[in-house]
Amino acid sequence: MQVTTVTTAPIEGQKPGTSGLRKKTRTFMEPHFLENFVQSIWNGIGGVEGRTLVLGGDGRYFNERAAQVILRMAAASGAAKVIVGQNAILSTPAASNMIRKRGAFGGIIMSASHNPGGIDEDFGVKYNTANGGPAPEGVTGKIFEATKTITEYRIVEAADVDLSTVGETTLAGMEIEVVDPVADYAELMESLFDFDAIRALFAGGFTMRFDAMHAVTGPYATEILVNRLGAPAETVMNAVPSPDFGGGHPDPNPIWAKPLVDLVMSQDGPDFAAASDGDGDRNMILGKGIYITPSDSLAVLAANAHHAPAYADGLKGVARSMPTSGALDRVAAARGLDCYETPTGWKFFGNLLDDGRATLCGEESAGTGADHVREKDGLWAVLLWLNVLAGSGKSVQALMAAHWAEYGRNYYSRHDYEGVDAEAAAGLMDHVRGQFATLPGTVIEGLTVESADEFAYDDPVDGSRSEGQGLRIGFAGGSRIVIRLSGTGTVGATIRVYLELVETDPAAMDRDPQEALAAVIAAAETIAQIRARTGRDAPDVIT
Ligand code: VG1
Ligand code: CO
């Protein structure tokens, strides 16, 4: 087999976003596009010669083709070994676990996560480092620089590697180990939670539905919930992964997982329900008659994690992304835990986890995780909920009601305006920034502005600074508006407006969030002129 050096030139727009490089699948399929980016990863990380990598993806359209290219490029650049999931499948948390468990130098995850899949939808490539976590900004910056100066890439000419069978093979002198994508992850979960208690819960008639949304978690959920925990087979819905996720968005929120939400709200709905996203790192939690916002879920898990053996001795600290509600902070304050506030994106939790400053982390976008891997972990969150329900003996509604009674409630919602004209979105951001000096002290929609600024983060572990991480307007009493532009979209700009109101009156704990937030929503419109600047009457997605 022969290594070919192909002459190429930089391709515009290969800057990794919140979570890797995401583009239209057809863009990734254009000549040199994938190859340029993969070679730029190798160049940005100092080469892969003699190194071991992990490779897997969420199974979306182009997943296996891309895997074959990446394997041939790893071999051409002298990698010693690639550990790859069978059929090029690995959920994001399973890939993180595999990198850590095998002491790999890093790994490539092929996924556009919650974005839809298919030839006319989205594809993505993400690089993770030796700790199992998404490459930090210092590394993605080097990769991006490499995309701007690339002149050639190396690839071996070879027939496709058989990825359908577990076992070992070689490619141009590089070892390839095809592994069961589920086994190691299931074993890890079993080491963290009280499986006997959860098994007893199911044996006692507790009912659950898990919606895998035709995405990667189907096989993982079936193995863990059905085979190991004894839940009935019908517990896992949409369990067979498909390249276009059954034509839907594999995004576990009340819009895209509406059938599941309708089910739990119905008379004979299950006691508990959950869904995960394309690559298995997100979770949505529901109980009979109730939707739990991800921010509340994070807070409840932090308050009750002691039910699980892994967290029985307490938490080292907790962390949340800046737009995530302050519900977690209330638990941390009551328990005397350090609580960190990071920019959006899991890569910012890595140092806190590595340094032993935080055990539990979460984002408002349905991401929750802990120090067992360095990615958010959808099924882990579901299992922790199950362990808490088994340990407390409470229903989801009762647990939530008790939590709000003890800590107060942070009413919370996110309004997304998708596919907005990029200039209009930038103009909106500038318009808000332009009011920072004059807003404090003014009263808008009955709310007194206390602060207005743009979030920047100083990493307490490595001292790095990340600027431009979201516009914040704080009101007296703790209410808040955050506005930022998405870094995962592939068309135009997506404006995310995060809305929060703190309620401590025990009599006001079960209001409709949109009604409770009405003044905050109106203030966001007044300050940001969202309708006029986007030409939209209403958000595309409300979570
Ligand atoms: C979104 C979420 C963010 C999350 C990221 C990756 O980013 O807001 O919290 O970490 O997606 O999640 P953005 O920049 O579009 O707001 V995943 O599960 O799509 O990899
Ligand atoms: Co995801």
UniProtKB/TrEMBL annotation:
Region named Disordered: 1-22
Positions of the Alpha-D-phosphohexomutase alpha/beta/alpha domain: 14-153, 184-286, 295-407
Gene Ontology biological process terms, A to Z: carbohydrate metabolic process
Pfam name, any one: PGM1_C_vert_fung
Species this chain originates from: Mangrovicoccus algicola
Catalysed reactions, semicolon-separated: alpha-D-glucose 1-phosphate = alpha-D-glucose 6-phosphate
Name of the protein this chain belongs to: phosphoglucomutase (alpha-D-glucose-1,6-bisphosphate-dependent)
GO cellular component, one term: cytosol
E.C. code: 5.4.2.2
Top EC group: isomerase
Superkingdom of origin organism: Bacteria
Swiss-Prot/TrEMBL keywords: Isomerase, Magnesium, Metal-binding, Phosphoprotein
Coiled coil: none
Family, per entry: Belongs to the phosphohexose mutase family.
GO MF terms, alphabetically ordered: magnesium ion binding; phosphoglucomutase activity
